[in-house]
Design brief:
132 residues; mainly alpha; 38% helix; 0% strand; globular
Length: 132
Amino acid sequence: MEISRMRRHELTDEQWELVRPVLPPHRNGGPGRKPADRRRMFNGMIWILRTGAPWRDLPDRFGPWKTVYHHYQQWRKEGTYDRILEALQVRLDAKGEIDWDLWCVDGSSVRASRAAAGASSESTSDPEEPEN
């Protein structure tokens, strides 16, 4: 039996089983392509959001950064992240582990723009690469 190694910023099997049913179904990857592995894509998104790294710096183990970014944007537009949050809140509420009177988002990992520190707000980055 092979034991999978849990890496930092990646979902455990238990966490994946909570998120998996809420994610959109597999889509065909196009002619001659297999659909992208949703868990790998989601783990790549988590890695980007937790590290604050540019999409282009996404480690190869998550797949091509453009593919992960495409899924990130598509799921954002479809409301997937809102459904994940709702499902997790319902689960915590059922266990009595959520206080609806006090609920906040941790902003400690949110990066400020360069302009917030006094730099020019004009972007000098690659036009194909999304801003983080």
